[in-house]
Specification:
The strands form 2 sheets. A 4-stranded antiparallel sheet has the order 3-4-5-6. Strands 1-2 form a two-stranded antiparallel sheet. The longest helix is centred in the N-terminal third of the chain and has 23 residues. The chain starts with a helix and ends in a 13-residue tail after the last strand. It is an alpha+beta fold. The chain has a domain of 75 residues.
């Protein structure tokens, strides 16, 4: 029984790893609407211009994580959003995008 469970666990891990690598290897990111396709990675200037041209998205927030990676959030007037992640010395890449972005502004009472 133990060998069977080990086999199933290994097979499941392999399938999940393959799915993850497939998603990473696509090389393009499908944006929020239908047929629009934008490059998954590009220079920051090109990414910024493309997101504005296609969705009206503008940079709304940035941050640097403990690995030195820059995270940028672009938000559009119709609720679209795109999140990019950029390693030091590399071009940013889209890591997420979607619709229905909602801003929440906490008050001091909420934390």
């Amino acid at each position: 029984m133990g060998r069977f469970i080990d086999f199933i666990s290994t097979a499941l891990a392999a399938v999940l790893a393959l799915m993850f690598l497939t998603l990473l290897g696509v090389g393009i990111a499908r944006a929020q609407s239908g047929e629009k396709i934008i490059p998954r990675c590009d220079t920051f200037a090109n990414m910024k211009a493309t997101l504005f041209k296609m969705f009206g998205e503008e940079i709304a927030a940035t941050g640097i994580n403990n690995l030195g990676r820059a995270l940028s959030l672009f938000i559009g007037p119709d609720g679209t959003y795109t999140v990019t992640l950029q390693d030091p010395g590399q071009d940013p890449c889209i890591v997420d995008s979607g619709t229905d972005w909602t801003e929440i502004h906490p008050t001091k009472k909420s934390y």
